[in-house]
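Following up on my earlier thread - several people asked me to post the actual chain instead of describing it. Fair enough. Here it is, all 253 residues.
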Amino acid sequence: MNRTARSDYPKHVSVDRVFLTAEWQYLAMLNYEVDAGMLLPFVPAGTELDRWKGKVFASLVGFRFLNTKLLGFLPIPMHSNFEEVNLRFYVRRQAGSEVRRGVVFIREFVPRRAIAFVARTFYKEDYVALPMAHEIRSAGANRLRVAYRWRSGNLWNEMNLETDGDSELLCEGSVEQFITEHYWGYAAQPGGGCVEYRVTHPSWKVWQVRRSAFEGDAEKLYGREIATVLQGKPQSAFLAEGSAVSVMWGRKL
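Reply from S.P.:
Thanks for posting it. Predicted structure:
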């Protein structure tokens, strides 16, 4: 979730200690093949880019955050249900005999300042609070239209997709499995090193999509280089059903 951490971050914290629980629902995922060199400045120390069949991906992801509770039991009044849109990419880290496949976030948008403050404080991620909205509705027989919107200045940005058919289990070795099954998060630190944290959830069913799009000022949101990617067509797009999730406390490496 974050990008930086305090120098006194507790190294002894267990990766199994719950920081937050929630339900993630209707995860719209637009996935772009990118040049590895574009992402290298964002790669946290101790990790390397993860690839699917030699390809490097960045994903624009929008979803619903529901029934959010700190420490797994403490609800946050008026902050339990909200939208999130994030831009992320994928890394891996060798931890002994285990390969930990994880996510790095470039920027995350949420509608509540308190949520952004908590994420920046505890995970040091680049969270920004902006007005947001979502749309989830039927688009005909066996079709859903899902859209997430966020306003920057006077402009509303939007990512949207329309599904085709029923949701299905992930295929082994598919790009959908690669994108969704990264169960660690990594955040680069300002003084070097990074924070590592675990995210747990079951495997998700996904819908294939018949159309998808991002519309907005990508350069203002992410800079010129990333904007050239987001203004193109995604290499893949799908909608994941989502599930209950647990986000564990982070640990500085």
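The chain has one domain: 18-252. That should answer part of your original question.
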